[in-house]
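User: I'll paste a sequence; please echo it back and then give the predicted structure.

Assistant: Echoing your sequence first, then the prediction.
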Amino acid sequence: MHFTTNSLVFFLCVSASLCAIAKKSVETNLLAVANDNRLLQYYENGESKGPSIEILQAILKEAQLDAKVEFMPWIRAFTTASNNPNTLILSMIRTPERDDNFHWLIKLSNLSRVFISLTSKPENHVNNMHQAKQKLIAIVLGSAGYKE
């Protein structure tokens, strides 16, 4: 297989209205939304698992808060976090377009985007974004690379 990478960063972030929680003395219901990403967070045997979940649980414990975690497709998770107060999203790539719309809590990992093609099909190899724009490629709706 032929790989091309482009490094990105995943972040745990919250919607803009979440910062008001610290000022409230009343109980607030938090929702954490996530897509299934085996490297960071996933749902298995009735439990939320993965390093992002462990970090979230530690942050919530320290802040003496609780949150329900719901797994859903990426675009639904992003839309939910964008439009609903007191909503966290696990995990999202930080981009200039998203920067002002969220409070970014913690860097979770580095990420490499890759183009994969068969070595037996050199005409399909992609070495840069310019070449990628000449090809038919698949990408997750609403993902950071969706608008590039």
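The two ends are 24 Å apart (CA to CA). Strands lie at 2-15, 30-34, 42-44, 47-49, 67-71, 87-93, 102-117.
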